[in-house]
Amino acid sequence: xxxxxxxxxxxxxxxxIDISVVFDWPTYFMLLLGAILLNLSLLSVGLFISAIFxxxxxxxxVTLGIMLVIYFSNMLTVVSxxxxxxxxxxxxxxxxxxxxxxxIGLLSIESIVYYxxxxxxxxxxxxxxxxxxxxx
Length: 136
Description:
Layout: H1 2-8, H2 10-20, H3 25-52, H4 56-71, H5 73-79, H6 85-92, H7 95-103, H8 109-135
Helix pairs in contact: 1-3, 3-4, 3-7, 3-8, 5-6, 7-8
Protein backbone atom coordinates (compact mmCIF):
# COMPACT_ATOMS: atom_id res chain seq x y z
CA UNK A 1 0.00 0.00 0.00
CA UNK A 2 2.80 2.41 0.88
CA UNK A 3 4.69 1.89 -2.38
CA UNK A 4 1.46 2.29 -4.36
CA UNK A 5 0.68 5.55 -2.58
CA UNK A 6 4.23 6.73 -3.22
CA UNK A 7 3.82 5.90 -6.90
CA UNK A 8 0.59 7.91 -7.07
CA UNK A 9 2.31 10.97 -5.63
CA UNK A 10 4.14 11.29 -8.93
CA UNK A 11 0.84 12.52 -10.40
CA UNK A 12 1.69 15.89 -8.84
CA UNK A 13 4.84 16.08 -10.96
CA UNK A 14 2.91 15.04 -14.06
CA UNK A 15 0.38 17.82 -13.48
CA UNK A 16 3.19 20.36 -13.10
CA ILE A 17 4.77 19.16 -16.35
CA ASP A 18 1.37 19.20 -18.08
CA ILE A 19 1.00 22.89 -17.27
CA SER A 20 4.08 23.83 -19.27
CA VAL A 21 4.16 21.25 -22.07
CA VAL A 22 1.87 18.74 -23.73
CA PHE A 23 1.95 15.62 -21.58
CA ASP A 24 1.20 12.07 -22.74
CA TRP A 25 -1.22 10.92 -20.03
CA PRO A 26 -1.99 7.40 -21.38
CA THR A 27 1.71 6.52 -21.51
CA TYR A 28 2.17 7.92 -18.02
CA PHE A 29 -0.65 5.80 -16.60
CA MET A 30 0.72 2.67 -18.30
CA LEU A 31 4.13 3.46 -16.82
CA LEU A 32 2.51 3.97 -13.40
CA LEU A 33 0.68 0.64 -13.69
CA GLY A 34 3.92 -1.10 -14.67
CA ALA A 35 5.77 0.43 -11.72
CA ILE A 36 3.07 -0.69 -9.30
CA LEU A 37 3.13 -4.24 -10.68
CA LEU A 38 6.94 -4.34 -10.62
CA ASN A 39 6.90 -3.15 -7.00
CA LEU A 40 4.29 -5.78 -6.15
CA SER A 41 6.46 -8.52 -7.62
CA LEU A 42 9.64 -7.38 -5.89
CA LEU A 43 7.86 -6.94 -2.55
CA SER A 44 6.47 -10.47 -2.77
CA VAL A 45 10.03 -11.78 -3.17
CA GLY A 46 11.07 -9.77 -0.09
CA LEU A 47 8.11 -11.16 1.84
CA PHE A 48 9.16 -14.70 0.96
CA ILE A 49 12.77 -14.14 2.00
CA SER A 50 11.58 -12.60 5.28
CA ALA A 51 9.39 -15.62 5.90
CA ILE A 52 12.35 -17.96 5.45
CA PHE A 53 14.94 -16.17 7.58
CA UNK A 54 14.44 -15.17 11.20
CA UNK A 55 17.03 -12.40 11.29
CA UNK A 56 15.92 -9.07 9.77
CA UNK A 57 19.40 -8.01 8.69
CA UNK A 58 20.10 -11.27 6.88
CA UNK A 59 16.65 -11.11 5.28
CA UNK A 60 17.29 -7.57 4.05
CA UNK A 61 20.71 -8.41 2.60
CA VAL A 62 19.52 -11.60 0.89
CA THR A 63 16.45 -9.77 -0.46
CA LEU A 64 18.61 -6.97 -1.83
CA GLY A 65 20.89 -9.47 -3.55
CA ILE A 66 18.02 -11.43 -5.07
CA MET A 67 16.26 -8.26 -6.19
CA LEU A 68 19.42 -7.04 -7.90
CA VAL A 69 19.79 -10.36 -9.71
CA ILE A 70 16.13 -10.27 -10.76
CA TYR A 71 16.27 -6.64 -11.86
CA PHE A 72 19.49 -7.04 -13.85
CA SER A 73 18.62 -10.48 -15.22
CA ASN A 74 18.26 -9.03 -18.69
CA MET A 75 21.94 -8.09 -18.61
CA LEU A 76 22.84 -11.58 -17.38
CA THR A 77 21.05 -13.06 -20.38
CA VAL A 78 23.03 -10.84 -22.77
CA VAL A 79 26.35 -11.67 -21.05
CA SER A 80 25.63 -15.40 -21.22
CA UNK A 81 25.09 -15.20 -24.96
CA UNK A 82 21.29 -15.49 -24.91
CA UNK A 83 21.27 -19.24 -25.50
CA UNK A 84 21.28 -22.28 -23.34
CA UNK A 85 19.59 -23.40 -20.15
CA UNK A 86 21.02 -20.56 -18.02
CA UNK A 87 19.57 -17.93 -20.36
CA UNK A 88 16.16 -19.61 -20.33
CA UNK A 89 16.07 -19.77 -16.52
CA UNK A 90 17.18 -16.16 -16.20
CA UNK A 91 14.57 -15.20 -18.81
CA UNK A 92 11.83 -16.59 -16.56
CA UNK A 93 12.68 -14.17 -13.77
CA UNK A 94 13.30 -11.16 -16.01
CA UNK A 95 10.98 -8.57 -14.47
CA UNK A 96 12.60 -5.60 -16.18
CA UNK A 97 11.96 -7.05 -19.64
CA UNK A 98 8.22 -7.16 -19.00
CA UNK A 99 8.34 -3.56 -17.80
CA UNK A 100 9.48 -2.34 -21.24
CA UNK A 101 5.94 -2.73 -22.62
CA UNK A 102 4.58 -0.38 -19.96
CA UNK A 103 7.43 2.09 -20.47
CA ILE A 104 6.36 2.72 -24.06
CA GLY A 105 2.68 2.99 -23.08
CA LEU A 106 1.58 -0.45 -24.24
CA LEU A 107 -1.05 -2.27 -22.18
CA SER A 108 0.23 -5.83 -22.32
CA ILE A 109 -2.06 -8.43 -20.79
CA GLU A 110 0.83 -10.91 -20.91
CA SER A 111 2.96 -8.63 -18.71
CA ILE A 112 0.10 -8.00 -16.27
CA VAL A 113 -0.58 -11.72 -15.92
CA TYR A 114 3.16 -12.39 -15.55
CA TYR A 115 3.59 -9.85 -12.74
CA UNK A 116 0.46 -10.99 -10.91
CA UNK A 117 1.44 -14.66 -11.29
CA UNK A 118 4.97 -13.94 -10.09
CA UNK A 119 3.65 -12.14 -7.02
CA UNK A 120 1.04 -14.84 -6.34
CA UNK A 121 3.65 -17.61 -6.41
CA UNK A 122 5.90 -15.83 -3.93
CA UNK A 123 3.02 -14.90 -1.62
CA UNK A 124 1.91 -18.54 -1.70
CA UNK A 125 5.45 -19.68 -0.90
CA UNK A 126 5.55 -17.15 1.95
CA UNK A 127 2.36 -18.57 3.42
CA UNK A 128 3.78 -22.10 3.15
CA UNK A 129 7.04 -21.03 4.84
CA UNK A 130 5.16 -19.38 7.71
CA UNK A 131 2.92 -22.43 8.12
CA UNK A 132 5.99 -24.68 8.19
CA UNK A 133 7.56 -22.56 10.94
CA UNK A 134 4.32 -22.61 12.92
CA UNK A 135 4.02 -26.40 12.82
CA UNK A 136 7.69 -27.09 13.59
